[in-house]
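F.,

This is the one I mentioned.
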């Protein structure tokens, strides 16, 4: 059963679902990149463990590396609730700062409406949206790094995100909507998610509440 949303599915934000989705989404990104990257690069996963309260959770970063030297070129972070709140937000911001101070490109995929957005690029002024895709490019010429930001509403498809490589190689493209569709189908979320129930917290923005009511009504008829 295809996903009933044009892009991110807010029902996947349920804490009982998110952990498995986070894992599957990272694996699917790695698989798609390894199909599209040239022979000089490969994508792999780095797994870090966090211990919020008394539980252990695994967070995954997709890394694009050079094939010959294994140099890290681009880090792709799928933000999790633990990256967006409390002490874990501070730790992630420190990691983010280290990456931005290095010669590594950073891609952040924030597919969670709750919590704090870690990047200062999104705070001044605040970007009011549901989801955010952010690319912070390293500039090998020594000029200032720059961020490219895609605000994504619940009612919109996810963008095709450029993934920078080393010059003179052009960006490859990560088709996030294809990733989402593949994960939704392979994980059988169509059988597992109950769309008659309210969307998991936090509350939707008012305009998205109205959109969702009409959207689900249309897709269920």
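My design for it:
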């Amino acid at each position: 059963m295809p996903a009933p949303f044009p892009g991110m599915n807010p029902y996947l934000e349920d804490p009982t679902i998110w952990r498995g989705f986070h894992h599957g989404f990272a694996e699917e990104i790695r698989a798609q990149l390894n199909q599209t990257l040239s022979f000089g690069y490969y994508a792999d996963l780095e797994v870090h463990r966090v211990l919020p309260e008394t539980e252990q959770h695994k967070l995954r970063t997709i890394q694009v590396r050079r094939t010959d030297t294994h140099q890290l070129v681009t880090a792709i972070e799928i933000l999790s609730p633990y990256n967006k709140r409390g002490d874990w937000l501070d730790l992630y911001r420190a990691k983010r700062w280290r990456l931005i101070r290095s010669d590594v490109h950073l891609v952040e995929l924030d597919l969670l409406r709750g919590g704090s957005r870690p990047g200062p690029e999104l705070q001044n002024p605040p970007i009011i949206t549901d989801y955010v895709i952010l690319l912070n490019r390293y500039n090998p010429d020594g000029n200032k790094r720059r961020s490219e930001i895609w605000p994504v509403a619940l009612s919109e498809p996810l963008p095709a995100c450029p993934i920078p490589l080393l010059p003179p190689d052009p960006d490859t493209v990560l088709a996030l909507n294809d990733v989402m569709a593949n994960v939704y189908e392979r994980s059988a979320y169509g059988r597992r998610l109950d769309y008659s129930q309210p969307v998991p917290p936090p509350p939707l923005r008012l305009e998205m509440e109205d959109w969702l009511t009409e959207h689900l009504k249309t897709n269920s008829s």
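The longest helix spans residues 15-36.

Talk soon.
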